[in-house]
User: What shape does this take?
Amino acid sequence: CGVFGIIGEPDAAAKTAFGLHALQHRGQEAAGICSFDGEHFHSHRGIGHVSRVFKSDKVINRLPGTSAIGHNRYSTSGDTVLRNVQPFYADLAFGGVAIAHNGNLTNAVTLRQRLVGEGSIFSSTSDTEVIVHLIARAAASSVEDRLIEAMRQVEGAYSLVALTAQGLVGMRDPFGIRPLVLGRQGGAMILASETCALDIIGAEYVRDIAPGEMIVIDRAGEIRSLQPFPPQQRQFCVFEYIYFARPDSVCEGLSVYGARKAIGRELALESHLPVDVVVPVPDSGVPAALGYAEESGVPFEFGIIRNHYVGRTFIQPTQKTRDLGVKRKHNANPAIVKDKRVLLVDDSIVRGTTSIKIVDMVRQAGAREVHMRISSPPTAWPCYYGIDTPERDRLLAARYDLDAMRDLLGVDSLHYISLDGLYRAVGEPGRDPGAHRFCDACFTGDYHQPLTDRDSGPGPE
Ligand code: 5GP
Ligand code: SF4
Ligand code: MG
Assistant: This one.
């Protein structure tokens, strides 16, 4: 998901809509904005892209106030129905609070059962509503302290923004799994999932919110930073660099585009062989393919053309729409691949749906050899922290070894970036198994927190 928040800005809702627009890649199912006008909260939420949900000034004008938060939804828990669309607003005894959350809680089902047992009535199936109920039931008196009390009970990944009558709050889980940055524009302060959302409104980047940090920005623009959780080994999601974040964003001080190119260079160093042309699977494979081409000296060409009027295939939630989606999305460019030894570069193979079709397409367009390079290690484990990977038995790399995958994809060679190569690309000497600074659980199965719902609870929804 994508989150955005702004305070001290006369056009708060409009700026939030722009921010969400820049964060569209983080979730395309639904969008929402909640504003506060000094007295009342106003909210508008809808299914679909930001440009559809906020298609006219009329909608924005119904969201007055100098502070607002917004959310783009990408579902990893709960269905895509309006009652699951964020921000969630609750009118609690001590005042209103609106919350927009990116990430996935790994004990949400367990907490929810407890809360229901204690009398809470849920109106959605989203794990974010658990946070709202925990805030409502907290013993502390200030909204801030209630939020801390609530978040001390949850496990998993969250980067969230909250809007209260007092101000804007930002919070990152103690492992810092999902991104969250602070920006400034004149007298306005901004929180956003990625720096590309600051760039779009011309705001300046101030800093990343630290893992486990809570930042409170009041209506006078006063900023307080709290560290309510015990420190943990940082576990920023390495997949943000590989695929999820936008290439023009800078996450934790590292350019996403630069990281992707560096992975491509590492791939070439690890596995180069004589080919005629390096071809990215667009768009996600482009920066890594550029890095590969630069390092190997092989020409980079657009041998696959992507239809830009089709959204990201993966994010549409059913297998049927995914199957249909990929066929509409890519075409091989015969002028580039015919009679050539083609080396394809893509970011990841999940179920294999994309790769099998792409390889077939490139062969049908006359390629003499087809080689595949992947800028992530094999995806062999599900993500429980906010990226929608399927269960293990659907993951190609969990079911087959490298040779079997090569044959199944129909490629002449297949190589995935090594874990050490990936860590080098993001500025580390390699992967230190005892103290790695990124979450890489979907590649290693090394989950850094207990998976309460999966292991001892009723199981994920
Ligand atoms: P597959 O077709 O193998 O199931 O999915 C892999 C493709 O989905 C890659 O081309 C990748 O760019 C794209 N993709 C889109 N969203 C996601 C996501 O959330 N996770 C992963 N791993 N890949 C995704
Ligand atoms: Fe990111 Fe993978 Fe960890 Fe999920 S499991 S947070 S996708 S690195
Ligand atoms: Mg892709």
